[in-house]
Amino acid sequence: ELIQGDGLLLLPAFVDLHAHLREPGQEYKEDIASGLAAAAAGGFAHVCAMPNTRPVNDTRSITEAMIARARAIGGPALHPIGAITMGQKGTELTEMADLKDAGAVGVSDDGRCVTSSSVMRRALEYAKTFDLTIIQHAEDHALTDGAQMHEGAISTRLGLRGWPRVAEDIIVARDVLLAEATGARYHVAHISSLGAVRILREAKARGIAVTAEVTPHHLTLTDAAVLGYDTACKVNPPLREQADVDALREALADGTIDAVATDHAPHSTLEKDCEFAEASPGLIGLELVVPVLLDLVRQGALPLGRLVDALTRAPARIARLEAPTIKAGARAELCLVDPNLSFVLDPARLRSKSKNTPFLGRQLTGRVKMTLASGRVVFVDGEGAAT
Ligand code: NCD
Ligand code: ZN
Ligand code: ZN
Asked: Does the complex come out with an ipTM higher than 0.90?
């Protein structure tokens, strides 16, 4: 499945389990067209879209409208993730049968995080009926009220309210127990703490149906990046410490963490060029997976085959999609990567409408040259192969 030649890598195209495409409702940050263009440039053939749009994707009609919009564009396929509950802060469960029937590949509370233990238990029982995975943003709000970044020495130095690891660990532990009790499928979104990794490892050893994803930024950055009050590094869950990064890398390498997902969270310049406390959390990621993560492969922290699996087969399995593969006669879903091409990340080159990434201006190595999705070329790198 991995063909190397002339220095280029031919890989199956990627599947992102976690992107915020902002349409409907916040098209000034991103829309389906710009988000899918960014995805194509990043090597993706499939993008699962989070439901914290305006309005929230809690109904069949919104799910269908998003899919129709993406089909009209003709780039990577869009797979909506429905909301677990109705509206912005609802406790009433959505009609998951309708969402699934309309094409939703999971249900989530991401970006809203309103799920109490009782709602979560009912949601797991209900989702199980439709073979839908619950994709959960693990955060105990009682412990993160006003939090701006990871709680530790650096938050103390900066005088910013901290988001402790245990606020994530508690919810992951709770939801593992609820998944065990209900027999439903539970997926941990953007896992970030070493404690949550330990709980995940134990849960899998006990045969509980839990899976997890990790983002490129949690694999490569720590809370030290926030020094200087860099709002580009403000994100939920927060960037943590080296011990967490090490635990995440080890768990991704050994398969405890199943997938890499971007948590692509575009925000406008105005929403980031402000006081740290006012800045919107999140950073873009669709176009940066290859350059950021090939670094881990070069450092020997992650085998290339495991990275490719975490970007293709593993997320496809969780979303119940057919995984892109390279084989004769299959409809082409692949990308061509130059692992040695070095460049300085220029915001003007990004297809995303938003430019909120701490990697701007940084020297990166590794670039997607071409992407095919559903048998069509959806991206060709405009610049020549010369460095
Ligand atoms: C997400 C967003 O912007 O939608 N932001 C983020 O920092 N990950 C929502 C969220 O999970 O808080
Ligand atoms: Zn989240
Ligand atoms: Zn998210």
From this structure: yes
